[in-house]
Write a structure and sequence with these properties.
With about 375 residues, the chain is of the alpha/beta class. About 45% of the residues lie in helices and about 15% in strands. It is built from 16 helices and nine strands. This is Epoxide hydrolase.
Length: about 375
Amino acid sequence: MRPFTLEVPQSELDDLKARIDMARWPEKEPVDDWSQGTPLAVLQDLVAYWRNDYDWRRCEARLNALGQFMTEIDGLDIHFLHVRSPRADAMPVVMTHGWPGSVIEFMGVIDKLTNPDDPTAPAFHLVLPSLPGYGFSGKPTRTGWGVEKIGRAWGELMARLGYEKWFAQGGDWGSIVTTAIGVQQVPGCIGIHLNMPIARPTEEDLANPSPAELKALGALKHYQDWDSGYSKQQSTRPQTVGYGLVDSPIGQAGWILEKIWAWTDNQGSPWDALSRDQVLDNIMLYWLPRNGASSARLYWESFGSFAAQEIAIPVAVSAFPREVLPTPRKWAERNYRNLLHWGEVERGGHFAAWEQPDAFVRELCLAFGQMSSA
């Protein structure tokens, strides 16, 4: 374990501004919505703020104040935040982000989980790793870093930190890594929480679907028809798309912003759910480490792992209404043989902790509180 301090050279920030100034923009889209992708006017507005008003040093200072570390696992540096609770009864939990997210997703829940205002509420020691090829973690130079291996690496990480028993949580790729932890029964993990459970319908379900099943099937069709092009590219040719993302801040921002719009619980604008600073803090964790290709390679490694799998250890689920691929409880119960908690949340989308931190914290406290008591 070695401490890690972010000190981005000013030359990197100057280079970003120079690239923005030299950008070649396409013409305006011939539609008045997001149906062809990120609208020109929306992206130009965000980039103008990025160029002239955004303060990276604020984000950098926040990350450094939380406590960042590096540790080498199987030849790869893993970057993580380790934020311990002052409470003696705190429970350790490893929380995993996804794409196009980062540890930035958890900034609004860290204080609430480690040091809650209510002394009777559960408290947690938080371990927040950056996926391989994401954030400031190392970039794998050989194949094999799929979700199963990442799940085992997180077990090694928790052991090195001295946690003999711990919980795991995740959404998006974090949900798949956390599922892999449960399926493999990684030593030390005593329960998991998912805000994107994965399950599949049976032929009987399809023959007579309930309203919840019809919603899930409709969302899956929309995803396949209109929302999955990024995943097909990243799971088949991540290197090709990486050239543009690593070279162009405009390209990287547009690539991510479209998914922020599509996957958050908003009324038509991404800024209904998240602020420009929140989104740019996250984009910077792709831009600064040049992660356009390395982050996409996880799709090449593990996109086939988005499949229903049985888990024997305790499982908790929080269902947010604007999840990209909602899963009815009926489907999930077939895979999660020890489902202790199923929470239906009123608001929120794919980025649960980022969008709805208070609801997310309540769900984790309920879920892991029940598991701890059990």
